[in-house]
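Re: [ENG-882] Designed sequences occasionally contain unexpected residues at chain ends

Forwarding the minimal case from QA. Structure tokens:
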């Protein structure tokens, strides 16, 4: 399998560098547009921050493993932190996108519901905060506070798996269904129904459907990235959860788990495509003032 490891290493390296640069450009864009940031931009901001954290903090350790063939540094505390970080950030990106997909229905079809500060707090800020902090709290509880004993393997990526996945099947099943399958299907259903509603609006020639189409297209582009790389893992994971076979488990571990790394790698490019006037904002020339010589 050494050739596969090398392919994974070069894929990540090839994508990580331009993705990181793209993320930085998006941060610059929002800094220059900071007075124009609205509630519609919050999902993009949270997603780009999450993907940037993966690219700069997690991916170097993953690439070091693929390059050296072993975990560096090889310590129990690092393995515990590494697993907590990987699961937490992936969960954050999933739940934020899931809520953002549901919330887009509100932003497009029921904008008046988010006019007041109270409603923005209840139906925008609070759900987004829960989506951000829930995964980290959950995995802190099941990984770090759990009393089971981890048997780390420093020759396996992420040092194998946390002990609760191997010794506590009920908790492992809940984790996969609640924290992977549920948000993935929520993203698919929310975006599918959003497309249907926009098409229905167009067929009825209702006013404002062009703006709705633009907001929908931006979200659907991001959802396609999620579906392309999370859906195979989710479907195969559901099958292996209830009817495991050695072949499906091998495919899940060697191929589908790696596909998840593509999400933070490709998100910056997808999010960039959703930003209006990006080139003009980033590369605009500063005005020059001619000061007369006295």
């Amino acid at each position: 399998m050494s050739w596969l490891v090398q392919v994974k290493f070069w894929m990540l390296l090839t994508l990580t560098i331009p993705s990181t640069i793209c993320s930085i450009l998006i941060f610059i864009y929002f800094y220059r547009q900071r007075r124009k940031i609205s509630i519609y931009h919050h999902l993009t901001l949270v997603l780009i921050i999450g993907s940037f954290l993966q690219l700069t903090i997690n991916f170097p350790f993953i690439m070091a493993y693929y390059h050296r063939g072993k975990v560096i540094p090889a310590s129990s505390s690092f393995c515990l932190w590494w697993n907590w970080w990987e699961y937490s950030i992936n969960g954050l990106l999933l739940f934020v996108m899931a809520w953002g997909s549901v919330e887009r229905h509100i932003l497009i079809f029921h904008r008046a519901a988010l006019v007041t500060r109270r409603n923005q707090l209840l139906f925008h800020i609070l759900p987004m905060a829960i989506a951000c902090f829930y995964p980290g709290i959950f995995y802190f509880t099941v990984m770090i506070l759990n009393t089971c004993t981890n048997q780390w393997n420093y020759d396996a990526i992420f040092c194998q798996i946390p002990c609760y996945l191997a010794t506590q099947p009920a908790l492992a099943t809940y984790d996969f269904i609640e924290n992977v399958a549920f948000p993935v299907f929520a993203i698919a259903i929310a975006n599918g129904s959003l497309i249907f509603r926009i098409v229905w609006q167009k067929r009825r020639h209702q006013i404002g459907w062009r703006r709705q189409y633009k907001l929908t297209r931006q979200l659907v582009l991001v959802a396609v990235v999620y579906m392309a790389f999370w859906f195979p893992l989710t479907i195969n994971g559901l099958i292996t959860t209830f009817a495991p076979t050695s072949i499906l488990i091998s495919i899940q571990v060697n191929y589908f788990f790696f596909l998840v790394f593509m999400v933070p790698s490709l998100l910056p490019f997808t999010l960039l495509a959703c930003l209006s006037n990006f080139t003009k904002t980033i590369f605009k020339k500063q005005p020059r003032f001619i000061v007369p010589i006295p």
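QA comment: On inspection the terminal residues look reasonable. The chain has one domain: 40-282. Proposing we downgrade this to a documentation issue.
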